[in-house]
Each structure stands twice: as C-alpha cells, then as structure tokens.
Amino acid sequence: MSQTFLGMPSGPGVASAPTADAATGSASTAHTGGWRTTVEIPANTLRWGRTFPAAAHETLQNTQLRRNLGHATRTIRGKRAMRVEEMPDWEELRRAAGAVKNEVMSHLPELLERFEANVTARGGIVHWARDAVEANRIVTSLIRAKGVDDVVKIKSMATQETNLNEYLGAEGITAHETDLAEMIVQLADDMPSHIVVPAIHRNRSEVRGIFLDRMGDAPADLSDDPVELAGAARAHLRKKFLHASVAVSGTNMGVAETGTVSVFESEGNGRMCLTLPDTLITLMGIEKLVPRFQDIEIFSQLLPRSATGERMNPYTSMWTGVTPGDGPQEFHLILMDNGRTRTLADPIGREALHCIRCGACMNICPVYQHVGGHAYGSVYPGPIGAIITPQLTQGLADDDPVHTLPFASSLCGACGEACPVGIDIPTILIHLRARTVDVKRKTVPDMWDVAMSATRPAMSSGRLWGLAEKAVKATRLVGRDGRIGALPFPASMWTGARDLPEAPSENFREWWARTHPTTTAPHSGPRARSASPASASPARSGREEAR
Q1: 3-class SS at 69?
Q2: Helices (H), 86-179
Q3: In this structure, are residues 292 and 282 in contact, taking their beta carbons and an 8 Å threshold?
Q4: Run of H or E residues at 127
Q5: How many CA atoms lie within 13 Å of 359's alpha carbon, on the beta-carbon side?
Q6: Which pLDDT belongs to residue 523?
Q7: 541 Cβ neighbours under 8 A, 6+ residues apart
Q8: Span 4-56, pLDDT tens digits
Q9: Which CA distances in Å does 180 have to 177, 213, 270, 430, 449?
Q10: N or C: which end of the chain has fewer CB within 10 A?
C-alpha cells in the first residue's frame, strides 16, 4: 500500500493527493468537500517556475478561490482598521519602528556579532548558514544527532523559504506543522498563499474535506463548524506535542542586547513546541534583529494589529539561551543569509528587509485579493513578495520568472500606507522595474521596445496624436458592455492581461470645441504664453502678491 507524506495509508478509505487536469482544472480524484490542490510543491520555494502573468491568468478563473480570498481579506482589513483607530499614536509608532529597522540595517554586522555573543553566553549554540541548502543541512544534522525521525514545527517563513519540510522528508524525517493553517496546507500537499494565514485560500468546507481525507483520526461525523474543526486539529496534534523530543521554529525577532529570541502567535501551538521538547532548533533570517529589549514594545503593538486585527498576540513567547530544568535543555540558533546580504547592498531595495511579516500589505492589495498568493510563484506573495523575492534571488533576467514580480502591482500605494514599519513598497517596485529594464537593454529589444519606438512619432506630434485619437474610436466596434476584452496582435499582448475601456464617443478636443466655441481648441504642441503679467486680472495679481 502506498504512503502519503505523513505516512498514512493511501487506500480506499483515504484519498490520495489530488491532481488537476490541465485543460479542465477538475480533480482526478473526488474529495470530501470538493477540495483540490492545483499547485505542486516546488523544488525552489522562491521560484516556482511560472511568470506572474501566466499564473494569474489561471487563478483569476478560480471563482471559489476569489470568493475565499475576498471574504478573508475584507474581514482582516476591517478588524485591523478598528484596532488602528484605537491608537492615537499609530503614526508615531510606525516612524519609531522604521527608525529601529534603519538602525539595524546600518549596523547589522556589529549587531549580529553582539547577538551571537549573548546567545552563546546564555547556553545557546549559534550556527551560520550562507544559503538555504546550508541551513537545511545544519537542521538535518542536528535532528539526526538526536536519533529521532519525527519533529514538531512552529509556523516559520524562514523554513518555508528553505523548503525544510521537503528536505527533511527526503532524509527520512517527518516534520509536523502545528499551526492550524500550516497543518491544513501540509495535509493537502498544498503551498501557502499568505504570510500570516497560509490557508487563506481555503474555506471551512474545504478544510473539513481535507481533515476527513487526510488527517487519519478525524471524527467521521466532523462538520464544518470552526469549533469542531479546531477541536479535531487539537486532538490530532496533542500526541505529537507529547512525544516530540525535537522542535523546529522560526522567530519574529531576536534582541542583540540580551540574546533573546521571540515568537508571536495566536494559537498556543508555538508555546507547546517551545516548552515541551528537549531540543529546540530555531532558523532566523539575519535581518530579524532589534538592537534593544525595549524595542520589542514598539513591534508588539504594531504586529498583532496589522497581522490579525488583535490588540495583542494571545501568546508571546521569549527565551534567552537555556534555563536548567525549564524548557528545552539544548538550544540551537541558525542565522541564515540566503540573499539578504545582496539585498542589503542596494540602498533603495534594502528597505524590504524591514519587513516584520505581518501580511498587512496583502490584505489591502487589490491585485492579491483577485489573483491569490499562488500567482506570485513564491512563498513570499503579495506586494512584499514582489520586492523581497527578486532581491533574494537576484532574478532580473527575461528567462527568470521572478523578473515579472515587480510588475505585479497597480502602484495604487495602499500597501505602503498599510505597512506598520513604513516600507515604501511602491518606490521599491519602481526601482526594481527600472533594474529589470536596464538588464534588458543589454540584450535584443523585445516587442515592448519595438512598440514604444513605433508610437514615438505620434506621441511627439500634436497633429498625429489628434489623428490617433480619432482612429481609436474604431475600437468601439469590438467593445462589449463598455469594455474591450480582446484585440488582435500586437494589442493582444495588453488585452491578454486586462480589459480596456471603450473609447468615448467624444474625445477631449471635440468636447472643448463644442463647449467653448469662441476659444481656441487646446493642443499638445508648444505654444506661446496666452497672457503677460500686465494683462492678469487684478484679483489674481492680488492673490499672487499675498503669497
């Protein structure tokens, strides 16, 4: 009998991993609740192999996904707005957080050395990992040294970034995700689609189906009531907590001053992992530092409100090295680079390293809400993923799917306004777009370059532009319901990604000529000033003198 990734039998009573037909998108295996997984777990979680436009084109057709995302993001946005409204000093907190992060980036080497010294002085063991491969090797060697093949895990973006679960599985070690949403994703052989809520693309009916099909010990009469679902998950995980001797975690922040490491969570599973096992292994990106213990006060107010709309995290756990007789008696901290040093070298892009992984930018982003996290082809989705992933991977070339991520935005600016540490995401997106264009200039011009060159004469002449405006009216013949969904090549390169509004029956110049018959029609070419200072009206002159 074949085995699933959790070692549960894949037989008549247990559904196997769902597969999707490429043409129809329908699942080849019927599942309880109608759930299916259409994203394969990639070898490189920062590069899934598809460009954003290609993936978005597919996810836009998933109406259930869009309903799930719309409901979830609206709920979180509403809760966040209420909690932020309660804080009269919210903007001051944001500025303070940004200042702390700027300090960290400016003194990162010194702070890391200080952090290592304090962790070591308090009984911890510090390891350094240059990349994801080295980080995974260190974790695996530490687990093997304990002679176990089962570990419990706290939700961690760092371990998602390294694809640790799959690496451990290939080495014969099973990592059990204990966060509810992460467990749902793992049971479904799925990929996370959100930084804070990995299973945001699922509804409770789908979760019920996943539990019945994959959890093994789920009650046969399990309903989709959230209380029952949470109870089933707790019962399933309880024995994992009680028997695990090794736990793996990430961290929200480390304190250079004291060597303290922290985890902010909502469910309590993290605290179980941090207290019961004898050995704790923590994987931490080198940017997740704060200089002083008092800096935690700032982020402990910003993070829960921005992430889940809570005033505070129900469970905030901090540990400093090893305490005899209390908690894990062996603590290993792995400090991972994995592209962060290269990101730090960019004076504009380095601001992305300020990210505290709250997901606020995703919850407010109209693009993310419609296409979902999987369309970004990275474990870091949404606006923050669009600026972090290209820098961690340095993927700017045309043959790298990552190069499309900086363009996965409308540049509406909502993400920058929502960011609790004030990351100027729109500016970084524009910066990365420029870098991508600069790389392409060294190669053969593409279709967009040819198109812009072809339109230059019309854009440079008022007369030609007026003729072009009249010609655009012909597109009304192919419009439907005020929109144009498809145009022939080369315009299809645009309409393949978005609809165009129909051209108005009357352009601006025609409207002006009709409504201002006694004046000269405006035009786009250079013209002399219409009035001298001497001819200005007395009222206007008075206003200007008063300024």
Answers
A1: helix
A2: 90-106, 108-121, 132-145, 157-162, 164-170
A3: no
A4: strand 125-129
A5: 27
A6: 54
A7: 533
A8: 323 333 333 333 333 334 333 344 455 777 788 888 999 999 999 889 999 99
A9: 8, 16, 11, 36, 48
A10: C
Three-state SS across 271-309? HHHHHCCCEEEEEEECCCEECCHHHHHHHHHHHHHHHCC
Tell me the two tokens of residue 146. 């304990």
DSSP element (H, E) containing 211: helix 204-214
How many Å apart are CA 433 and CA 214, to the nearest integer? 42
188-191: list long-range contacts, CB under 8 Å, 24+ apart.
188/18, 188/35, 188/37, 188/214, 189/4, 189/5, 189/17, 189/18, 189/37, 189/41, 190/37, 190/39, 191/39, 191/41, 191/42, 191/45, 191/48, 191/374, 191/379
Residue 214 neighbours by CB under 8 Å, 6+ apart: 4, 6, 8, 14, 15, 187, 188
Residue with more model confidence, 491 or 287: 287
pLDDT band at 522; cut points 50, 70, 90: low
In degrees, to the nearest 5, what angle opens at C-alpha 130 toward C-alphas 127 and 135?
55
523: its two tokens: 């035009």
Which one-letter amino acid corresponds to residue 420? P
| Side chain identity at residue 177, one-letter code | E
Q: In a 3-state reduction of DSSP, which class is residue 125?
A: strand
CA distances from 215 to 187, 212, 238 (A): 7, 6, 13
3-state secondary structure of 547: coil
Q: What is the DSSP string of 448-478?
A: HHHHHHHHHHHHT-HHHHHHHHHHHGGGGGG
Q: CB neighbours (10 Å) of residue 460?
A: 11
- Region 403-432: mean pLDDT is 96
Closest CA to 200 of 34, 61, 419, 371: 371
Claim: this prediction has a pTM higher than 0.85: no
Determine the Cα–Cα distance for residues 152 and 237; give it in Å rounded to an integer: 9
Q: Peptide bond before 219: cis, by omega within 30 degrees of 0?
A: no
pLDDT digits (tens, 9 = 90+) for 134-162: 999 999 999 999 999 999 999 999 999 99
Q: CA-to-CA distance for 268 and 166, rounded, in angstroms?
A: 25
Question: Which residue ranges form the domains of the chain, and what is each CATH number?
Answer: 40-340 (3.40.50.10420), 351-440 (no CATH), 462-514 (no CATH)
Spatial separation of the C-alpha atoms in residues 229 and 207, rounded to whole Å: 8
